[in-house]
Amino acid sequence: MFVATLLSNPLFYPIAIVLSVAGWFYYQRVLSPYAGVPGPFWASLTRFWYLNRINAQDMHRYTKMLHKQYGPLVRIAPNEVSVSDPAAMKQIYAVNAGYTKTDFYPTQAPNLSPHGDSFTQLDEKKHTYRRRMISHIFSMSSVMEGEKFIDNATAAYFQVIEEHAQKGEKMEMGHWLHMYAFDIIGELFFGRMFGFIKERRDIGGYMGAVDVILPHAIRLAVLYEWMRPIINVVMYPLSANLRQAIRCFEALGAESKRYVDERIGKPSARPDMLSKLIKVMEEKSPDFDITDVYTEAYTAIFAGSETTATAMRSAIYHLCRNPQYKAKLVAEIDAAQREGKLSEMIAYGEAIKLPYLAAVIKEGMRVQPSIVLTFPRHVPAGGATICGHFFPEGCRVGVNPYVLHYQTSIFGEDAEDFNPDRWFRPDAANMDSYMFQFGSGSRTCIGKNVAMAEIYKFLPKLFREYDVNLADPTKEWKEEGAWFVKQTGVEVKFTRRNVE
Ligand code: HEM
Fold it and tell me: Which UniProt keywords apply (predicted)?
């Protein structure tokens, strides 16, 4: 009776709304365990603030700016904090520290296997079990057994570069390096190139689909879990782009499965990653079955193509803008060439003996890490004090490599500058221990050796064979990041070099 009277009162609803908003406001600003952590006002009240920055594709630059303004802790959502303190990175991501991945990750799950996948698995025990099954195939010696497959894609790509050089045409490295990295993943994980380089186009619209689907997954990921299905239902009929991307994506999934299935029916002596995944399946089934082979190969496309392309773009772009460092790299490569230390398709084992090359690669990934949001983690049982603030169990905290890599306390007063020479300073080993481009701890990148093999082999060959310059040195690249960063407008011209 009382409730009925209350509900029929016309003032009830406006008053209830005002009280709820005031209660939410009071809770978030005063009672929440995150209260007192500084940051943008709206970020403390709603996750739509974060969504807005994802749409603007500048969360990494924005977070860096916020840390300059507010200090080592910044509240980037009602229930999430970005941490810039280098010591906190080691605390949060230490192996066995007990911090676990949050519900940010599952929107990126391939959902192909009942056992899940390594990247988005939230259950640490399941993750450890799976990672143990497959980690050996990602060791550098294992990746190197398939080095010639990387060379296949490289040979195809250099043919195109040579044509551009001969015609004096510029090449947009943003797009081409993505096609190249995608084709290498094809060679290693699917037994053949997808054919982007050969056909010189985004066959099937796969790359375009990744560019639409991934930001969509991240928009969902930064919102509350309960909102995600609703947004999916609303967005699907509204966005023709998304529908088209999902179709391309399904086609890519079907194509990938077909490649894997063909190999199962026709075992091969090819020592590529696909053969090794199939061997794990034969040894570990039913815990690792055919759907897990699909999953790992498919994950490699997502986790390992744009990311690797970004690392190569960053090195090339920054070298072109800083000719003094390019000259040092070229001198090192030329000297090695003259001494007969480099083969035609430069071997990884040869490339890692070039210290300036190593410094360039590291510096490129420092100033432009490929993944540029915080890697969010739950605080473990018992809570944790981070930068003087106590966070109870379950709170979300994370470090963004783009923020960490510019900390002057670690990388020096010139942290803003691209300067490979820094890696020859006495504190280089200390700086190295804070490099976070591949993450850290138990969830560190499993594909790091695949990426490093590609990058180390490609860059010295490029700079040995061509003088590479920006087509328009006054033009800056366009760099956008909604989780994985992407650069466009890296237009370069090649002039043939012959090192005697
Ligand atoms: C330069 C290239 C790459 C960069 C910068 C990179 C970066 C990262 C980072 C930062 C993480 C950890 C993310 C987190 O903690 O939230 C990660 C995880 C992962 N990466 Fe990479 N990645 C690269 C290439 C690759 C490649 C080539 C592959 C596959 C062939 C790959 C597969 C994975 C997988 C499966 C995980 C999840 C690992 C786990 O949780 O056990 N990545 N990567």
Answer: Heme, Iron, Membrane, Metal-binding, Monooxygenase, Oxidoreductase, Transmembrane, Transmembrane helix
- Of 212, 394, 396, give the one whose Cα is nearest residue 302: 212
pLDDT value at residue 444: 97
Query: Could you identify the residue written with the tokens 């998304």?
Result: 242
Nearest atom (ligand 1) to Cα of 105 = 16
pTM above 0.85, yes or no: yes
pLDDT at 220: 92
User: Cβ < 6 Å from ligand 1: which residues?
Assistant: 118-119, 131, 299-300, 303-304, 307-308, 311, 370-371, 375, 437-439, 443, 445-447, 450-451
pLDDT at 255: 84
Q: Minimal CA–CA distance to 296: which of 117, 109, 106, 138?
A: 117
Asked whether 63 and 402 are in contact (CB, 8 A), the reply is yes
* CA 370 – ligand 1 centroid, Å: 10
**CATH architecture, domain defined by 35-496:** Orthogonal Bundle (1.10)
- Output b/e per residue, 363-373; b: 16+ Cβ within 10 A: bbbbbbbbbbb
- Enumerate the domain spans of the chain: 35-496
Go through 104-122 and write b for each residue having 16 or more CB atoms within 10 A of its CB, e for each that does not: bbbbbbbebbebbbbbbbb
DSSP state of 383: -
* Mean pLDDT lowest among 139-153, 164-178, 263-277: 263-277
From CA 155, how far away is CA 261, in angstroms rounded?
27
**Across 94-108, 257-271, 320-334, 458-472, least confident range:** 257-271
Ranges 212-216, 239-243, 386-390: which has the least confidence: 239-243
pLDDT confidence of 378, banded at 50, 70, 90? very high
First to last CA, the chain: 97
| Alpha carbon nearest to ligand 1 atom 43, residue | 445
Phi, psi of 389 (to 5 degrees): -110, 130
Residues comprising the chain, all counted: 500
Atom of ligand 1 nearest to the CA of 273: 30
**Do the Cβ atoms of 400 and 107 come closer than 8 Å?**
no
- pLDDT value, residue 50: 97
CA distance 225 to 64: 26
- Ligand 1 atom closest to the CA of 117, numbered from 1: 35
Query: Rounded to the nearest 10 degrees, what angle do helices 273-284 and 124-134 cross at?
Result: 120
Q: What distance in Å separates the CA atoms of residue 190 and residue 203, rounded to the nearest whole number?
A: 16
